[in-house]
Amino acid sequence: MLLSWLLLFRLHGSYSVQSIDDLAYIVAFGLDKGDKSELKVTFEFTRPNTSGETPAEEASPTIINSVEANSIDSAINLMNTYVSKEINFSHCQAVVISEALSAEGLSKHLYTMMNKVQLRPDANIIISKCLAKDFIQNTQPNLENLIAKYYEIVPISSEYTGYTANTTIGDFFNRFVCTTYEPCAILRCYQHFYRVW
User: Fold this and answer.
1) What's the rounded Cα separation, in Å, for the pair 178 and 89?
2) Angle, nearest 10°, between helix axes 107-114 and 169-177?
3) Which of 5, 80, 146, 151 has the greatest number of beta carbons closer than 10 A?
4) Model confidence, pTM
5) What are the tens digits of pLDDT across the range 134-181?
């Protein structure tokens, strides 16, 4: 009887395992001022390749969707119902914020993003001269097939070019709450990188 109870408790944990097919992975998301609500949040998803037959020279397809909501959490809940999968931020490489929204202040949105356990602090933060939605839609890498790899590599080019900065959301938040530093982020307009102080 003791052995059967031990086996029962041991097998109980396997039912809570979540399949990767049940998750929708975000590679980038953007924040704009909304038309009817406070925010317009744009999500860029990787499209799962079920056939496994995509040629190496073709870019991995992505899906871009936007919703309007009063907060980031509300937008995530709305998108969860729309895509019928649970949104997962563990592969998010870039957070794009429009210049118009950043001019109004980022405090509330930064705290919300930092409270997301899945959103890694090494994701880059980009301030866009255009709408964040337009920025995400027009980002088409020429030399990289994986969009997530592109978002990861471009800011790292600061190590050998000096034309951009590798500014992560973790560094930005730490400087934001610190009284002796000013936060800085990448300012981008489609094909060009600048540094914002």
Assistant:
1) 26
2) 130
3) 151
4) 0.77
5) 988 888 777 667 777 777 776 666 666 666 677 888 888 888 888 888
DSSP characters over the chain: -HHHHHHHHHHHGGGG---GGGEEEEEEEEEEE-SSSSEEEEEEEEPP-SS----TTSPPPEEEEEEEESSHHHHHHHHHHHHSSEEE-TT--EEEEEHHHHHT--HHHHHHHHT-SSS-TTSEEEEESS-HHHHHHH---SS-S-HHHHHHHHHHGGGTS-SS---BHHHHHHHHH-SS----EEEEETTEEEEE-
Contact assessment for residue 152 and residue 120, using Cβ atoms and an 8 Å cutoff: no
Q: How far apart are CA 193 and CA 164, in angstroms?
A: 6
Question: What is the gyration radius of the CA atoms in the chain, in angstroms?
Answer: 19
Residues near 178 by Cβ (< 8 Å), separated by ≥ 6?
Answer: none
CA distance 34 to 50: 35
Over residues 8-51, the pLDDT tens digits come to 666 555 555 566 667 888 999 999 999 999 999 999 988 765 44
